[in-house]
Amino acid sequence: MSQAQTSSTALNADELKNGNYKSAVGTWKSSDGKTIKITSDGQLELWGNTYPIDKVSQNQYVTGIYSLTYVDSSPVGNTPIQLCPKGVSDASDAGDNSKDRILATNGLPSEESYFYRVD
């Protein structure tokens, strides 16, 4: 497998910084088999439900990480979605920093809280 990544397969920090989530479009899977899907028409499929994507913004606590927010009719307990480009360290480092990943958890991150792109 080639080490070179095209923009279609890598999280693009410049795009994310400008609120553009297109580089995150695809299916992401955790080590325990759960999936998160981000579609090009602005939908987030999470825990069996589909939500419209609201926006992407810089995480106020961790530099280089981006928060993807979504519209939920009952936002209490919304799972935070963090887009973590490869090479960027997040607060816990329980995931594989050598890969693009999505961190999705309401609690302390564990290995199962990280989702890696599968397509």
Secondary structure layout plus pairing:
Elements: H1 13-17, E1 26-30, E2 35-38, E3 43-46, E4 49-58, E5 66-70, E6 81-84, E7 101-104, E8 114-117
Antiparallel strand pairs: 1-2, 1-8, 2-3, 3-4, 4-5, 5-6, 6-7, 7-8
With strands numbered from the N-terminus, the spatial order across the biggest sheet is 1-2-3-4-5-6-7-8
- Count up the helices: 1
**Mean pLDDT across residues:** 88
Shape type: globular
Gyration radius, rounded: 13 Å
Please state roughly what percent of the residues sit in beta strands, choosing from under 5%, 5-15%, 15-25%, 25-35%, 35-45% or over 45%: 25-35%
CA(first)-CA(last) distance: 15 Å
- Please outline the major beta sheet: 8 strands, antiparallel, barrel
Low-confidence residue ranges: 1-7
Approximate helicity band:
under 10%
User: By helix and strand content, what is the structural category?
Assistant: mainly beta
Summarize the helix and strand pattern as letters. HEEEEEEEE
What is the count of β-strands?
8
